[in-house]
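R.M. (postdoc): so does anyone remember the format we settled on? I'll just put the structure tokens first.
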């Protein structure tokens, strides 16, 4: 079996990038398939996560200018090279299946340059995030966005399948050729064991999406009711300074720590008591699978659209109403005061996460390809 994966880059530290690399590794290590990765924006940087040397990899070096529309002349003039080099790479490799993970122009051109092959588009971005952005547009830009969305739906009708991560995304987009395949969790080969600290933990980019400003408001309530606990946040991002100022203004700098993004995720999770997710929107937050595989119970906002499809409320987690600061504080205080409950929920999490194990999920991907050959 010969498979091509097309994406922009794999140097950024993100969930979509990590699961992509994990799938590439799995195909070559466990299935022995011939796999080619094609990127266009790697910019000479190394993958942020280990990529098996058996995976063939070519970067086209298109390097679109970030923050500028693809239709801006500065970017659109790069399009002919992207079209020709991508077409050449695909036809030389002669794949049985092509998978796309990109929101760029390549989504529109792939059915043209790969019409003789089976092509699949993967959605890794929440529709709700797009919805929030749409609400802030002017009337004219909303019309343009509606036209673009109609064009995307038309183009995607020519794909073999459109793959969504959960039922909510699947129902929202309502693609006739849509299917649902979730991501899998990162199996822990060498579990870290040790005493738990009185700390809640959260990992993610310091951005509007992740809602850490809301979490700081939550912690202000929690900190007034519970002693000797800390909130450890790991991540980098554009909101770091604003969040740090918010922490200082609330005099919480002794109990909330903004730490840099870490590569020792399992170690940091294993020493924590529970995981907290304050996101305004998600699609399929991989960090929840990582937390559960470390036997951590979860307290999360029921944000669109990821957590509800992954957690089992009141068993391995507590899902509280979207953006409800008081409700989240109440659940966090409850679980912090009950160590036995945390242990029970953590063991449930360890069992429940197994339905997202790599073997079962990759079998679905393999069947997807073989059923459409």
């Amino acid at each position: 079996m010969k498979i091509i994966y097309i994406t922009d880059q794999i140097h950024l530290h993100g969930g979509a990038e990590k699961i992509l690399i994990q799938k590439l590794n799995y195909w070559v290590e466990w299935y022995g398939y011939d796999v080619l990765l094609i990127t266009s924006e790697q910019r000479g940087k190394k993958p942020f996560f280990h990529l098996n040397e058996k995976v063939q990899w070519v970067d086209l070096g298109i390097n679109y200018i970030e923050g500028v529309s693809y239709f801006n002349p500065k970017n659109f003039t790069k399009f002919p090279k992207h079209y020709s080099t991508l077409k050449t790479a695909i036809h030389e490799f002669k794949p049985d299946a092509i998978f796309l993970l990109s929101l760029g122009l390549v989504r529109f051109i792939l059915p043209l340059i790969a019409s003789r092959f089976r092509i699949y588009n993967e959605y890794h971005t929440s529709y709700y995030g797009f919805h929030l952005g749409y609400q802030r547009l002017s009337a004219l830009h909303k019309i343009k966005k509606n036209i673009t969305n109609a064009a995307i739906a038309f183009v995607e009708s020519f794909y073999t399948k459109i793959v969504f991560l959960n039922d909510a995304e699947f129902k929202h987009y309502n693609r006739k050729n849509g299917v649902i395949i979730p991501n899998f969790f990162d199996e822990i080969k060498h579990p870290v064991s040790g005493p738990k600290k009185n700390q809640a933990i959260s990992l993610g980019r310091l951005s509007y999406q992740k809602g850490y400003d809301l979490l700081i408001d939550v912690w202000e309530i929690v900190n007034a009711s519970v002693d000797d606990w800390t909130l450890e946040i790991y991540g980098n991002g554009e909101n770091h300074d604003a969040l740090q100022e918010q922490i200082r203004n609330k005099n919480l700098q002794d109990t909330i720590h903004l730490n840099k993004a870490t590569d020792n995720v399992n170690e940091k999770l294993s020493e924590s008591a529970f995981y907290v997710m304050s996101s305004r929107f998600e699609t399929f937050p991989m960090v929840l699978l990582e937390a559960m595989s470390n036997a951590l119970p979860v307290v999360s906002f029921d944000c669109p659209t990821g957590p509800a499809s992954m957690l089992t409320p009141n068993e391995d987690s507590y899902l509280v109403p979207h953006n409800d600061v008081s409700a989240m504080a109440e659940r966090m205080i409850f679980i912090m005061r009950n160590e036995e409950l945390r242990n029970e929920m953590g063991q449930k999490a360890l069992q429940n996460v197994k339905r997202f194990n790599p073997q079962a999920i990759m079998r679905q991907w393999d069947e997807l390809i073989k059923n459409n050959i």
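R.M.: ...and that's the designed sequence above, right after the tokens. Also worth knowing: The mean pLDDT is 94. The CA atoms of residues 202 and 233 lie 5 Å apart.
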